[in-house]
Design goal:
Elements: E1 2-6, H1 15-24, E2 29-32, H2 35-38, H3 48-61, E3 64-69, H4 79-99, E4 103-106, H5 126-146, E5 149-152, H6 163-173, E6 178-183, H7 196-207, E7 211-216, E8 218-221, E9 227-230, H8 239-248, E10 254-257, H9 265-276
Parallel strand pairs: 1-2, 1-10, 2-3, 3-4, 4-5, 5-6, 6-7, 7-10
Antiparallel strand pairs: 8-9
Helix pairs in contact: 1-3, 4-5, 6-7, 7-8
Length: 278
């Protein structure tokens, strides 16, 4: 596994400075978030000259973009919002093709009208599932057209909330263009911490053959029972077991840091290297 980081971790500086800081941390892989380039995650149009310049700067720094963020709300309660997201997703596909980025990361979405990263009871409804499948069909057609892979990350707040839902989702399509981005911290609810290894084993075994990328963040459980995310190595996640389980299932892809501050990247990368080389 090779360690990388999300470009938007460096949102306080320009993408050029962010790339320099990624290299200073000893990393050569990154997920590009277009907010880092043009201030919008999903711009309405492609700025080819700007993106080409960013790609050239990354190449000069020895940094390879392994994925592109494309996390719009695929089951938003507003149909117009869903349609606009699908339209702008093609712009992301064009950006990925221009820069030679093989994978776009998806958000399966939430019915929550305030945030796609907050749970809503309607996420569990047949209607939400059907909207997810319809939207995914559109995205897979774009992935085929632009020769891309779509990476789906099980998120507790989303319609694809856990490994079982993710397995069912993949099985609906059985497409080589729809794969899994696994984040070990996302597999846990507060009550499951004591079953750490069992939760990791079950989640990874269900999705093993489809994992193309892994994420590295951590979590703590506060006194009130709330689970919150922290930088890798600063929480409760059993990283030696998590990474060993990924290795045992044959995964050797990118391991990307996120959910941390820019000044935490070097320490978390050092921590991950220590685990990987122990």
């Amino acid at each position: 596994m090779e360690i990388g980081v999300f470009s938007n971790v460096y949102s306080a500086c320009t993408i050029e400075d962010g790339l320099s800081r990624i290299r200073e941390a000893g990393l050569t892989l990154a997920q590009l978030n277009l907010c880092s380039v043009c201030g919008e995650l999903m711009p309405a149009a492609l700025d080819e000259a700007r993106l080409t310049a960013v790609g050239q700067r990354a190449q000069a720094q020895g940094i390879h973009f392994v994925s592109l963020a494309g996390t719009f709300n695929l089951i938003a309660p507003d149909p117009d919002q869903r349609r606009e997201g699908l339209r702008r997703f093609e712009v992301l596909c064009q950006a990925a093709a221009l820069l030679g980025i093989p994978t776009i990361l998806l958000c399966t979405g939430s019915r929550n009208p305030q945030s796609q990263w907050q749970w809503h009871p309607d996420n569990a409804s047949p209607a939400a599932w059907n909207d997810l499948l319809k939207g995914t069909e559109r995205l897979l057609a774009l992935a085929e057209r632009y020769d891309l892979v779509l990476g789906v990350e099980p998120e507790p707040s989303n319609v694809v909330s856990d490994p079982r839902r993710a397995r069912a989702y993949l099985d609906e399509f059985r497409s080589d263009r729809l794969k899994i981005v696994l984040d070990g911290a996302n597999l846990f609810r507060p009550a499951q911490v004591s079953d750490m290894r069992q939760v990791l084993d079950e989640g990874i075994s269900l999705l093993a053959r489809d994992i193309i990328q892994a994420h590295a963040k951590d979590f703590l459980v506060d006194a009130d029972g709330t689970l919150r995310y922290v930088a890798a190595g600063k929480g409760l996640l059993d990283y030696p077991y998590y990474l060993a389980a990924l290795h045992a299932c044959g995964f050797s892809g990118p391991l990307l840091l996120h959910g941390l501050n820019a000044d935490e990247v070097a320490d978390s990368a050092r921590f991950l290297r220590g685990v990987l080389h122990a």
